[in-house]
Automatic annotation (TrEMBL):
Gene3D superfamilies: Hotdog Thioesterase (3.10.129.10). CDD domains: FkbR2. This is MaoC family dehydratase. InterPro entries: HotDog_dom_sf (IPR029069), MaoC-like_dom (IPR002539), MCH/BMMD (IPR052342). Transmembrane segments: none annotated. Belongs to the enoyl-CoA hydratase/isomerase family. Residues 18-128 form the MaoC-like domain. Pfam families: MaoC_dehydratas. It comes from Microbacterium galbinum.
Length: 161
């Protein structure tokens, strides 16, 4: 009996199912270093992310907020291994992005994704378009971010005998 090799990958178009909920684990605990590095790398000089004394004096949170683009990027990134690793052709768009509650350093971000729609590509027969709704929650289950994403993914390769 020979050993089998399995390469981790995302889903082919045919493997997605509408209304399926994917829970992406483990979660990711946000750190102050994440916030400062991401914020400075992206040239975002917002004092609410960088200046603890300024943020402490601001209503209503009195604390530095995690950069919302870090939250969005981490939320989408958490889905890659399970959904699109190696099967993604292109990200077509992001929409309906909301941040209903802040995320702070020390909070853990848990992401889930629901497939909301899919169709074969009309111009690329070997590919399909999948619509995904992402939700990020903190460790208390509070929703901190939502977004929809449209991706172009490969269809399952033809099996050859």
């Amino acid at each position: 009996m020979s050993a089998q090799e399995i390469v981790q990958r995302g889903l082919y178009f045919e493997e997605f199912e509408i209304e399926t909920r994917y829970l992406h684990r483990p979660g990711r605990t946000a750190t102050e270093a994440d916030n400062v590095l991401f914020t400075t790398l992206t040239m975002n000089t917002q004092a609410l992310h960088l200046d603890a004394a300024f943020a402490e004096a601001q209503e209503p949170f009195h604390d530095r907020l995690m950069n919302s683009m870090w939250t969005l990027s981490t939320m989408v990134g958490a889905s890659v291994a399970q959904l699109t690793q190696g099967t993604l052709v292109a990200q077509l768009g992001l929409g309906d992005i909301r941040f209903p509650h802040p995320l702070f350093a020390g909070d853990t971000l848990y992401t889930e994704s629901v497939v909301t729609g899919m169709r074969p590509s009309s111009s690329r027969p070997a590919q399909g378009i999948v619509e995904i709704a992402h939700t990020g929650r903190n460790q208390d289950g509070t929703i901190v971010a939502t977004a929809t994403r449209s991706v172009l993914v490969r269809r399952r390769p033809e099996e050859t005998s």
